[in-house]
């Protein structure tokens, strides 16, 4: 689910319109995209508030992860970056047995 969420939120333009800020840093771009995507999830997909909260946290953490590369544009975020991020999160939060 997280893979689909991040793929949709970052790679596809949000339903409210296209966002293109040449030279703007990725964190600022994502701070515009994420609330619009969450609003789409709330109104169109009718997701529960707890689910939206989890999505908000996941997307904020992903934004922090990709914002370490100041030369990166949102349009350059790839599926491979998403998969790498998800793999890192799985390793970090793997249940201890």
Can you give a write-up of this model?
α1 packs across α3 (49-66), α1 packs antiparallel against α4 (79-92) and α2 runs antiparallel to α3 (49-66). The protein is flat and about 30 Å long. It has four helices and no strands. The longest helix has 18 residues, at 26-43. By secondary structure, the protein is mainly alpha-helical.
Keywords:
4 helices; flat; mainly alpha; 0% strand; 62% helix; 97 residues
Care to give the gist of this entry?
The protein has 97 residues and is mostly helical. 62% of the residues lie in helices and 0% in strands. The radius of gyration is 14 Å and the shape is flat.
Q: How many helices in DSSP terms?
A: 4
**Residue windows where pLDDT falls under 50 for at least 5 positions:** 9-24
Distance between the termini: 24 Å
| Helix share, percent | 55-70%
Report mean pLDDT, rounded to a whole number: 77
Rg from alpha-carbon coordinates:
14 Å
Strand content: under 5%
Structural class: mainly alpha
Global morphology: flat
What is the string of helix and strand elements? Answer: HHHH
Question: Sheet with the most strands?
Answer: none
